[in-house]
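Lecture notes, unit on binding sites. The following record was shown on slide 14. It pairs a sequence with zinc ion.
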Amino acid sequence: MKRNLALIIALLLCVSVLAGCSCSGKKSADSANTTASNSTEQTNTIETPATEKVRTTSKVNVRKAPSGDAEVAFQIEKGAELDRLSDMGEWSEVLIDNQKLYVASQYLKPVTGAVSDVNAGKVIVIDPGHQTKDSSEKEPIGPGSSEMKQKDTSGATGVVTGLREYELNLQVSKKLKEELEKRGYKVIMTRTQNEGEISCIERAEVANNANADAYIRIHANGVDNQSANGVMTICQTAKNPYNSNIYSECKRLSVDVLDEVVASTGAKREYVWETDTMTGNNWSKVPVTMVEMGYLSNPREDELMATDDYQWKIATGIANGIDRYFNEKA
Ligand SMILES: [Zn+2]
């Protein structure tokens, strides 16, 4: 018991140090009133709890009582798995180190057991396409190629909303990351902000270095014809000189993601475009697909894609496609 107490004290000390320099996230849990005053806490230990597995959707405060005024025992990171004893509405009672503690229910989501276990070891790299400026430099279109292409551009622009493609791509990518993490995948982003320049090769290297199980490139289309609409995915051809060895996996990933985004959004199904002109695809050594979510040049799709609701439908569809890809593979 003494050892436990010492551990708890050590933990509390750590947490109070951490609390001083953390909280950089935008929705840092029930961050209000972290300066709780009373410390008349009591260690509530219990014997045989019936629990439900939940996962934190944000960095959250773990409190000693179900109230925003109660003392913060410590904070836990986003994505942590907890045992929930009961959902009391606004607050949930959780069991941590055999103690009953409390977390705001809005930051907890049930873990869907089987899926999360299957996906636990899988790494997905998401590449939110484009950047704020057009690069002045070029890079080889594939390993060993003398054909050069611009390192990156700022992409298309919403014909009605004026939304830039690099912004839209990042918005959807962040939702996709959240959705995939909820399903148990490990997610790595090639960029998390709009500022900065990264070339298509550098983006592919992120996926290669992570030995990703899937590399998902997020883009939106833009053409002169404003009536063009729908979803497309892109992979290399079977005769690609750089990575035709992974063609069949890329094709299957592209079909699965395309089908599921169409099912989730109700958008028109264009097709899987097979081309060897995409630097980011050519440099990938891991299964890759490029998703053209819709047309920024189409007034209706431009307006739809700018909404949170539609962005979630796209993200959910892509995640469903990724699930399907691995299920077929298994
Ligand atoms: Zn693009």
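Take-home: The two ends are 46 Å apart (CA to CA).
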